[in-house]
Amino acid sequence: MNLVKQQMPTGELTLKVDEARFPLDWLIGFAARANAKRGFLFLSKVLGKHWPVTPRAMQTIHDDLAAQIPPSLPGPVVFIAMAETAVGLGQGVFEAWLRANPNGKALFLHSSRYRVGSVPFFEFEESHSHAPRQFLHLSDAASALFSTARSLVLIDDEASTGNTFANLVQVCRARYPQLEKLHLGVITNFMGQAANAGLSERFGLPTSIGAALSGHYAFQAGAAPAPVAASAQRFEANAERGASPAFGRIGVGRALNPPQGLAMQLAQEIGAGDSVLVLGTGEFMHPSFLLARELESLGKNVVVQSTTRSPILSWGSVGHIVRCDDNYGEGIANYLYNVAPGQYQHVFICHETPASPALMQLAGQLNGRLFHFQSETKIEEIPVC
């Protein structure tokens, strides 16, 4: 068992690692959050969110978490990924599971902090978050499959209290009482051994959990409280935010098609040894991973990450911070961590929302190019002006 102590601006964090399938330093770093509810962050280095990571490393985590899903789970199986941070992780795990179970009947969807037109939805809460309201949208086809599902797989980057999982399971079981089994998949499981042993009783279903690293932590807040960040959610029920239904937000039962044509085109423009950042925006993460993976397969030196609405302090595993406007139009501050302007020879910004001043600002800050993913096959480069 490894013991790690971190003194940070917001307090002292003590972490005890019980089991690790990968080295701790490869999986996570430590950061301080501008959040009075929780003044620290286990910053994932393999998620593709706050830290630049190769597609190969991300794929390793996807495959590992998928391999820990019990083969005995009865189908159909519904996979749900948690917004904002774990949207790409969840879809990657889902697609890895499909490769290993080509005859499996399954559905993937991810939660969202945006409404998608008139698509029916239900709501649950991520209580510790700076943006607590989460929505799940279901197309008619997704709703039909969910109503026959026997197993539920929930994916997040981290489990600490398990409260968000508990809130979602409660809502899902009320709507779909036929569910028989539950599996939780996370990169880091910090609920502790006693909590892990009681998961089935807590959730009311036979429950398993898979993680790349397991342990538990304690945090002692400092004398100076964590800064209180501005709200990171400004929900308006009828506002159109450009949240697309095309990539998994309302349910998808197959792997997305990778943008091979775009990758081949861009690869011709990338010089030998050039560094490349493929940047997702907000909840739009998995297609950027797919583009980066294609470029990597063509021999390019590429990393992936994404903008986020999560406010983190400049300390520890967070170096340079780029502040940018919200391309979804809520007026919420967005950030890009550990990327400095001019760091990469090529920056390809992937987005689902239409062209906007916020996107132009981001592209200008990074000398990047904008690619509007309207569907898996319709991708338009937006001139930066």
UniProtKB/TrEMBL annotation:
User: Which domain of life does this protein belong to?
Assistant: Bacteria
Keyword Glycosyltransferase carried by entry: yes
TRSP domain: which residues? 263-360
- Supply the alphabetized keyword list: Glycosyltransferase, Transferase
- The record places domain Orotate phosphoribosyltransferase-like at 27-215
Q: Which CDD domains match?
A: PRTases_typeI
GO MF annotation: an example: glycosyltransferase activity
On whether Kinase is a keyword of this UniProt record, the answer is no
UniProt-recorded name of the protein? Phosphoribosyltransferase family protein
